[in-house]
Structure formats: structure tokens, C-alpha cells
Amino acid sequence: MRATFPHRFLPYLLVAPQLAISLIFFYWPAGQALHQSVLREDPFGLKTQFVGLANFRRVLGDPAYLNSVQVTAFFSVATAFLSMAIALVLAVQAEKILRGKGFYRTLMIWPYAVAAAIAGMLWLFLFNPSFGTLAYPLRQMGIAWDPLLNGNQAMALVIGAASWKQISYNFLFFVAGLQAIPKSLIEAAAIDGAGRTRRFWTIVFPLLAPTTFFLLVVNTVYALFDTFGIIHAVTGGGPGKSTETLVYKVYNDGFVNLQLGSSAAQSVILMVIVIALTAFQFRYIERKVHYG
Questions:
Q1: Does the residue 134 lie in any domain?
Q2: What is the pTM of this model?
Q3: Can you tell me whether residue 290 is helix, strand or coil?
């Protein structure tokens, strides 16, 4: 059925705000980054020189940038996997609660309202090696916990903070997906003698495939971009650049070191990586998704 409008300009008027937002906050900055990536500028913008692809060659040959690629890959995979896995477990358990289900779900959603920087500072205080509440049990177990000096521990801390921040978002969608599954299918499998574990992997999880695929795309973008505030608040990319992701290196080179051309080239490369990852997910992973 085709939608009809009383005036032919009404559809354009309705989409105009979204188009304006996309133009101002995405296409225009992307165009500016692409333009600056082929230039060499002084920090004050008083002198500009066209250098072509020299910025890209210098970035791709920089060991520090290659280190950021490895850090980002590990951080993104770990954050997406942990946040989705924990959210799925919590959503499944929430469906079993008979009394107080709404209150429990409300408590689970609250952490998503916390700003990224606040979430990072919260975890930093909890795991502070000197006075952190949750750092004390680690010291009692004989673990030399100090994420401010140990790169692996710092990575574990930012992964934990980023995953905790995103669990609520994933939980909300998994709960909605579970509620959309017909109870008759699960009851029929139970009558046939299938246990809880088998019912989950053969019925529930396959029917959650569309939700899982959507969250996979969202969590990938989240780990690549929206975790900047957490890393900035908790580690600042350290120690020894062990938590310096690609988006944080763009900020560090562009706003701290004032290497505008290099920072713009890095942002263009990051944009290409995100587009390629999203296209790969839709091209190959979505084939395994079955929509009911």
C-alpha cells in the first residue's frame, strides 16, 4: 500500500530536519576531514600545503598507529562480546522472574543513562589501587593490581567499564526479542522432552538472530567511537599507549599534538574501516540471519 500526502512538498518537509542534521553533523565534517587529510597545515592554520597522500603513507607506516589498530581490534571484540553475552544471560534470567519483573528491568536499564565519562570515573574509583573498594579483594588475593602502571590491567579495566555501560542497551533489545518469541514453540519443545539448554540453543537463540545481528552492528560502532569518554577518563590512552584506540589517537594527535593533517588522515581511515566492517557484517553475517 502506497502512502499518500495531501501536498507533494510535505514528504520533503518531513525529512528535511533529518537531512539537515546529517548534512551538518556528518557529511560536512566528513568532507572537512577528507579535505584536511591531503594538506599539511601549521597548528594555527596560517600556512597550508597540498601533500596528496603523504599523510596517509606516514600514518600507515607509523608503528604507534599500527599499535592502535591492534589495541582497537582487541578492545572492540572483547567489549562487544562481553556486553552482548552478559546482557543475553540477564535478559533470559529476567524472563524467569514472576514478581517484581518491571522493577528488575528498570534497574537494569539505568546504567545506560550514565554518561561515558562518569561510567569511566566510577570504575576508576572502584578499582583504584590505593583506595578502590573492589581493588581491595584483588590485593587480598595476592594480585599486584595497578591499572595505572600495568597495560593489561588497564585494558581489562576499560573493557569492563565499556561493557558495563553498554549492557543495559543490549539487555533492553534482548528482552524485547525474547518477548516476541511465541511461547507455544518453547512449550511444544518442552513436551517433546527438550531440556532448557537445548530449547535455548535450538529455538530461542536462532529466533533472536535478527536482534543479535542488529546489536552486533551497534556494539561494533559503539566500541569504535562511543568509548572515547571512558578511555579519556580512565587511562588517557596509557600506560604506554596500551589503551590508545584509533578514535583516541585521532584526538591525541589532532587536539593535543596539533598534527592536523595526520589526525584528519586517521579519521578518514577510521571512517573507511567502520564502513567496511558494517558492509562486511551486512554482506556475510546477515546471510545467517533468518527473519520470521
A1: yes
A2: 0.86
A3: coil
